Every structure is written in structure tokens, then in C-alpha cells.
Amino acid sequence: MKIYIIGIGLIGGSMAMDLKTIIEGIEVFGIDSNKKHANQALEKGIIDRIGTLDNVAEADRVILSIPVKESLALLPKLLDQLHSDALLWDVGSTKEQLCELIANHSKRDQFLAAHPIAGTEFSGPQAAHRDLFNGKPQILCESNKTRPDLLTWAKQTFREMGMYLRFMEAAEHDKHMAYVSHLSHISSFMLGKTVLEKEEDENNIFDLAGSGFESTVRLAKSSPEMWTPIFEQNKENVIEILDAYIKNLEHFKKLLVNDDYKSLFREMKNTNQLTSILNGISKK
Amino acid sequence: MKIYIIGIGLIGGSMAMDLKTIIEGIEVFGIDSNKKHANQALEKGIIDRIGTLDNVAEADRVILSIPVKESLALLPKLLDQLHSDALLWDVGSTKEQLCELIANHSKRDQFLAAHPIAGTEFSGPQAAHRDLFNGKPQILCESNKTRPDLLTWAKQTFREMGMYLRFMEAAEHDKHMAYVSHLSHISSFMLGKTVLEKEEDENNIFDLAGSGFESTVRLAKSSPEMWTPIFEQNKENVIEILDAYIKNLEHFKKLLVNDDYKSLFREMKNTNQLTSILNGISKK
Prior knowledge:
2 domains; homodimer; 13% strand; globular; 8-stranded mixed β-sheet; alpha/beta; Rossmann fold; 6-phosphogluconate dehydrogenase C-terminal fold
């Protein structure tokens, strides 16, 4: 079986590494616009060869793991080339526009919209590692539009990677992701920006900050190359949740200005209920 | 040497545990308005006996580790009782009002305002453990107002706990803490609130959220009992930094509304410089 990985970063690279242990006789071709990354992936044994987009017709499976905006440009052309038993899945963080784009493509049923929730603030093939997906959710969107035999293969393969599967519509996926992922990134980036602006002496941040600060701004290390197009693709949902967040911060400020500490206490107490949910996440 | 710990939570309890390994012949008395906590501390061996506030005169060292508002009420009365060679230090997260309150107390020089940056989202004596302070900063405020022999003892003791010392004025301390700690807590609490409000089905949060969400809302588990008075004490500084944060979020939103992805990219790229600072923190 020939696998093409287009974009050999944390997700694509880690997926290739897992596939090599699951599928016998697999041959992995890697394509990356960043030549350094492609060579690193080769040296690290993530891929067996460097491939080219012109030869995608020989691929049995294709993983599309590049920034979402580039996927939009590339996906239709890739589908055009697929042989009749090939399956292509993407791993992007937004799905609605991508699914709409190829809704009427003649090979729509050879595509599967997948989103493994396994990203970290690190990127590139050096960050890739085996078992990244073990115990993590894999969201499959509009999976009823994928050809049953190909879908069955994919579901089984993802489960062998240790993932548990969730199914939803593309629009629903994008909305939830705005809530539980995209907002966290904005919150983190802007928190980092605010503190950098205020703390003229960066040594103070280093010396005085504890693990709490570190935890809330961790995502501010994330790649702008990846996140700019995610925010663009999911603009409407992101603005909606960002508005709600700003409103809640304004409300918190108002309580503080008014010395209404009873309400301030209640705000925090009510939010403490997240604890049980979070304990569930950290066990994943 | 008799040590009194007033408030046997994460910080007070952990400090008692360290002191027991550092000071020979130490006898630790614990006082806590929560009887369950006092008994847990006794069972866990954090304290040797349960003490009473009436007997503080017999203490050689007193650690005041209760919510900052209660410290304000209690500190002058405790100082009144101290014998002439006793030292009392607090471990609270705000310092300006406390230092002002006892500025003219006849035993001002037997007090040391200390802030170990070692809190977590957990609280209570069950969370206490040895070595919590190892490698962490201890901020000492207005230490020139503490009697030199008592200050020397305290500095040596904190260093034996593995802490590195930083010295600053109380007002300066409170400002920095608003930046690198208090804002993170508000950001986290309100992020948690926003997502809880939007995600009607809590299972979605559990299923779809990754480690990024977990990291940014971790502090929303924190104790409202502890944090309400911190925000009250540090109201001015907190409002100032919260305003700056909201402004930055509004700006981010505006860029998104205007489809100005070039600037959005730059915002994130500039904030990436936190990476090196954060790598420093996580090595602490």
C-alpha cells in the first residue's frame, strides 16, 4: 500500500509513524513545500521517500495535513487524480468550507473529513512522534458521504491508532471547535500580548510568573502560519464566541468596579463545575 | 522552636512539612477555622498539635497563610501577642494594604511580608506536600523593615527550602502579580464560564476539548474563597490590566471582522516571543 502524506508536520508525521506500525508492507511518500521538513522526515524515518504532487495517482491513501486554506486550493485537484480505490482524508481544524467546496465533486465519496484532536503548541516533523493519537478523539464529518468500504477501513485504522470516533456535521464541528479550541488560542495569544506590553522588563515575567501563567499562555507559542487560516475559515463562529467572552470579562470587571464581591465569588464558584469535566479530559 | 501555622492549606501545610525537615526539635501547632482541615493536617503529620490563637505568645515563628482579607483582620492582634524574639510572616498574594495596615505597629520589625510563587489550582492540607517550594521564587516585600537577625534567619530558611529570593516594594509586588498571575485567573474563569454557557451539552466539552483547552481553563478550578479577596485587595491593578486585555481582544476581533489576516498573523507572531520566557519558567 502506497501512502502519500502531504504536509509532514506534527499531525501528518505522527500519523505516518503510526500507520507504519499498523499496516504491513506500507510505503510512505512525503510531500512538503518546506524542503528542510521533508528531509528531516526522511532522516527520521517518518517517510520512506519524498514524493511529488504529480504522482498522487499512484497513492492508495492520501493524508492532507497542511494549513486549511491551502487544503481548499489543493483538495479538488488531488481528488481529480485519485485512482478508483484510493481514499484521501484531511486532518484540518475547520471543515465547513472544505466540505462545501467538494460537495459535488465526482470523487466526493473517496474523501473523508477527519479532525484528530491531538495538536499541541509544537509543530514540524521534529515534533512528530508515535502514539500521539492514542486515547484522543477523532472527529469524522459527513462520514455518510464517504464510500462504505473506504469508511470502514478508515474507522478501523483510526481505532487501531487508539482513537475514539465521534461523528458530526461539518457546520456543527466548526462551531464546537470555536468554543473548545479556537477561543482558547485567542485568549492565550492576547493574554501573552497584554503581559508582554505591560511588563517592560521581561525578567519579571520569568522570575515572578508561576505555573498558572505558564498554563494560560502556553498556546501563545502556537504557529501563526497554522492559526491565521483557521480563524479566517471559522470567522463567524469565532467572532460569536469571542464576543461572548469579552462580554463576560466586561461583566467581571463591572462587578469589581462596583465592589460586588458576593457576585464575583458566585461567578467563580459556578465555573468551578468545570473541574469534573477537566479531570475527565486530563485522563484522556 | 515552636511554630504556629495559621491556615493549614496548600501553602501553610507544605511550608510546615519543609520546616520539619530543616529545623531540629521543631514543634508545629496548627490553627484552622475548618476543623476538618485541622484534623486532616494532624493525621497527615503536617502539624503536631492543634493550637489556639490565645496561645500565639508562646510561638517563636508564626506563618499566616489564610485568605488575604482575613489576614488584614488578624495580623495586628497577632503582632500584639508576639514575644520579643518571635517572627511572623504571611504568604498572601497581595501586600500593599497589609503592609500599610501595620506600618506603625510597635512590632512591625517582627513581621516579614513573603509571597512564595508556588500555588496551584488545588487547596487544603490534602494538597500539601514536601518540596513544593523547591526552585520557586519567594518574594520578600519591604524586607528592610524586618529586624536584621529575624530577616537573616528567614532568608536562610527559605533558601534551605530551595527558594530563590526576590525583593521589592509592596506596591510594586501587587502590580506585577496583577500582570503575571491575577489576570491569568480571570481569563481562565471567564473562558470556562463562556464555554459552559455555549456548550449546552457538557459531554461535548469532555469529548472535543484537547489539551489546549484544558491548559487555558485549568485555573478555573481555583478556590473562590481565596481569589475573591485577592481581587478585592488588588482591585486597581487588576482593573488596569483587565482593561488592557479586553482592549487587545477587541482589537483582535476587529482585525478578524475586517479580514485583516496579515495583521492577525503579525499579532500572533509577535507574541510567539513569549516562547523563550515560558521555556525558562517550565524549567524552574
